[in-house]
Sequence to fold (152 residues):
Amino acid sequence: TELAAPITGQFVPLDQVADPVFAQKMAGDGFGVQPTSDTVYSPVSGTITNIFKTKHALGIKTDSGLEILVHIGLDTVELAGKPFEILVEEGQSVSTTTQLAKVDFEMIRESQKAETVLVLVTNMDRVKTLTFEKAADVTVNAAETVGTVITQ
Fold:
C-alpha cells in the first residue's frame, strides 16, 4: 500500500513531530507534513470509517485492512471543529485525489497550535515493513507517494 502526502508542504519524519505521543509512535507509525496549502487529501485509497466530531481527524480503512488516521494539527481537538470543513462522509470511498477537508491554518496558528498534518497507521500489528522515500524538510505535493507499507 502506498502512502501519499495528504497536503502540499514539508515532509516531517514522525520522530521529529512536536508532540511526544505521536513522535514516540504511541498512536501508530507514519509521518507528518507541515502544510503550505489548505486542502487535505486522502493519503490512501479506502473507505472513511470515522470522522471525529471535532473534525480534526478522520479514519480510513484500506482494502488491505490497514487503518489510517489523518490527524490535522496538534492539540486541535481543543478548537471544537472551528477551523475544519469536512468534505467527505463516513462510508464514502476515497482515493488520493479525494479532498477530505479544507482547513483554516491561520486560525490554528492564531490559537497557538501546530498545524502539522499527520498520517498514522494505527494497526501496526498488520504491518511487515513501513518505509519512506522522503527526508525531513523535503517539499512534497498532495497525492505524491511518500512511503510504502507492506502488510503481513
